[in-house]
What we know:
By secondary structure, the protein is α/β, with parallel strands linked by helices. It has three domains: about 210 residues, Rossmann fold, CATH 3.40.50; about 140 residues, Rossmann fold (3-Layer(aba) Sandwich), CATH 3.40.50; about 80 residues. The chain contains 18 helices and 13 strands. The strands form two sheets. The chain has a seven-stranded parallel beta sheet with strand order 3-4-2-5-6-1-7, with helices on both faces. Helix 2 crosses helix 3 and helix 13 runs antiparallel to helix 17. The protein is globular, with a radius of gyration of 23 Å. It starts with a helix and ends in a 6-residue tail after the last helix. The C terminus is likely disordered.
Amino acid sequence: MNNELYQNDSVERAQRLLRQYFGYEQFRGRQGDIIQHVLGGQHAMVIMPTGMGKSLCYQIPALFHQPGDTALVLVLSPLIALMQDQVDSLTRRGIDATFINSSLGRSQREERYQRLAAGHYRIVYVTPERFRKSEFREAIAGRKLSLLAVDEAHCVSQWGHDFRPDYSRMKEIRQSLGNPVTLALTATATAECREDIYHQMGIPSQEITLFHQGIDRPNLSLAVTETWDDESKLKAIEETLGKEEYKSGSVIIYFSLIKTLDRFSDALLRREIDHVCYHGDLPRQHRRRVQNQFMSGEVDIVLATNAFGMGVDKENIRIVMHAETPGSIESYYQEIGRAGRDQQPSLCEWLYDQNDLMIQMQFIEWSNPDASFYSRLYTLLTEHPEECRAFGTEWMNERLQKVSRHDHRIATGLAMLDRHGVIAGPHPPACYEITSEIPKSFLDDEYLSAKKQRDQQRLYGMVQFANEEGDRKSFLNHYFLGDSVSA
């Protein structure tokens, strides 16, 4: 009976906190159930569509701390771009929160370490890489974690579409924190991926409860338009932009290649369709300016690569178009999730040209170097460090492969060596500094081939999605959720 009274009290308190700090009268979907579950000391895995309020599931529990209580909710996230926005939003609401990541200067980080150690902050956002830093580990050592929230949890799994090596240390991280109650959250995780997440976190599957709301966003319309060339795509873009029911908001048009984006930008300008462009080759200040223009409503249409989206939480995006084929169902779903966050009708249209599949197949080749390539790259760095520093990555690339000067495997190789701590960084001069031996998995063709095959299977999922003659939302639900049953 006492437990029932406590539960009823915590439900009422959670709703009061929701109204007081966030201005909502009721929780949405399973939010309330998830909050009560983790407050009761139980682990949870949450599958929830983008924009449906996953963050409240750990923000509300942080507000249960009493004045003077130094308990902490720690949020692990790979998205540095989102941390600032989340913390700004929380502090505006009077919630003591901060982030600690590589965007801060040394003095800022040290100040936040000191405040963290002294018991300040209810919520702290960090990347998993922060646990490499002894200063952070010392600062957090004296704090009691009431909850560990793992955002974008699909990054934990080697089967996920956006695997991050530091996330694979999740079991070690949890142990160093005293194995706290853990809440894993994502919009995209297949059944296979979920099981691997549990394993990587060191939580038996029977000890973690799955909550999912499906992945359906009722206000989104999913369309696949078959195209054959640039002209047919441009015609489709013009027709879609002309639809009255979607003219009240903003538009994102995604491209896989920068050169294709530039070509379409020129064509749209000739058609007097105003827009801005966003991609990774633009200077940082330019990208920031474009994002601010889009977020403020100064411009309505942005042509972008998938570099655009992290930190974009704009309610009235009416149209998300893919002018080239995404590399996976997971990537596609993440990107269309930026549409219609105000719950108003919005369109997600993919302009499907079978020729675009070759682009993604090339990306798969570049992002999956074989054991021989990794071995030659590591040997070059260890045996010819002076030449590497003197002549740079172009010189290295010429010695590693002879097929094409546009081969991007060296960028992948250096990035992966950095993520696993083999070199000091992915870019010069840090990429020339060897800090440890190469992992055995990098020299295991069977292991590397399995990853490449998974990437190919994800691309094939896009082909199946394009050819789906029934309900495409049902296809997505089956892809991500299979026959799983939620709590």
